[in-house]
Amino acid sequence: MRVLVTGARGFVGRHLVAELDAAGHEAIGLSRCEDCPNPDANERVADICRREEMDAVIREVRPEGCIHLAGIAFVPVGWTQPRLVFDVNVGGALNLIEAIREHAPDCRTVVVSSALVYGAADPDRPRDERSPLDPQSIYAVSKVAADLNALLSARHHGLPVMTARPCNHIGPGQASDFMAPSFARQLAAIVAGRAAPLMRVGNLESVREFMDVRDVAYAYRLLIERGRAGEAYNVSAGCAVSVGAILEKLCAIAGVRPRVETDPARYRPTDRQPVLISEKLRRDTGWSPRFSLDQTLADIYRSVSAT
Fold first, then answer.
1. Distance between CA atoms of 303 and 307, rounded to whole angstroms?
2. Can you give the pLDDT at residue 152?
3. Are the C-beta atoms of 200 and 186 separated by less than 8 Å?
């Protein structure tokens, strides 16, 4: 299958392209020019916020599948630049779907949403795809809008479109402003003697689901192959841990026990995200996670230690 991957040069995109190629698909990456200054033969450059550019890409590539990753993924940006977040996350997804509807209406499409569409109220209650949507940030509202528009397009226009709602995912190659690679990079600097044995951290009490980005990429690949049009799919391994537990595991991997100091700039109020139920994904595609949390963290530490 010829599969267009938007945001292909991003954290998830690089893993997804590798997953698709390994499974025998032809992955065509789509990125912004600033992320892809020297595109290769299997890459295209376009701005998803420009409808005419999306039309041109879809007309040329004629994808049989499309996995839409491109967008603003850093939640705090929603509070500082809400218009930008809506233009990219909502308008960009709409431009893509409309271009596909006009030029490649048989293209199987996965629009990647977020677990944050469910909110964090009543965190002890697991969420399945029928649970109410309760976004609690500008970013999450943008994801709800893109998600529901994609599902509406499937119903109203008969397009083979579905959405994926992943929990937090981590792994090798993630930007260092995210929690796990930030911890790993600080520990690697301590081990190498480049920094004093002091960790600067945010709130260690918050509880999240964490799963390997490579398992998420695997889920997206199976959805493009076997998912049902018009359906939303949770992507989750069903295991939640505290941020403090992540730090403990990384300290054990690094073999050091530094002092820990709270950094007000990194601190957010304590919260717990509800666990997602991914039974529909498992049933429809046969997916199951392949990486343990310990393996993921070991791979993160190894990757930052090598840089």
1. 7
2. 98
3. yes
| Parallel/antiparallel/unpaired status of strands 207-209 and 240-242 | antiparallel
Tokens of 264: 């007000």
Residue pLDDT, tens place only, 86-108: 999 999 999 999 999 999 999 99
Q: DSSP readout, 192-257?
A: TTSS-SEEEES-S--EEE-EEHHHHHHHHHHHHHHPPTT-EEEE--S-EEEHHHHHHHHHHHHT--
The two tokens of residue 2 are: 């010829």
For the chain, give every domain's residue range.
2-170+211-237+276-290, 179-206+240-273+296-305
Query: What is the torsional sign of CA 247, 303, 287, 11?
Result: positive
**Other Cβ atoms within 10 Å of 179 Cβ, number:** 21
Local structure of 163: helix, strand or coil: strand
Please report the pLDDT score of residue 37 as a whole number. 84
Per the structure block, which two tokens stand in for 244?
């403090």
**Tokens coding 41:** 């033969």
pLDDT tier at 75, thresholds 50, 70, 90: confident
Phi, psi of 5 (to 5 degrees): -115, 110
What topology is assigned to 2-170+211-237+276-290 in CATH?
Rossmann fold (3.40.50)
Tally of CA atoms within 13 A in the half-sphere of 111 that contains its CB: 34
Query: 0.90 cut: is pTM over it?
Result: yes
Q: What's the topology of domain 179-206+240-273+296-305? A: UDP-galactose 4-epimerase; domain 1 (3.90.25)
Write the CB contacts of 69 (distance below 8 Å, at least 6 apart in sequence): 5, 6, 7, 8, 10, 12, 13, 16, 112
How far apart CA 200 and CA 262 sit, in angstroms, is: 6
Q: How far apart are CA 20 and CA 23, in angstroms?
A: 5
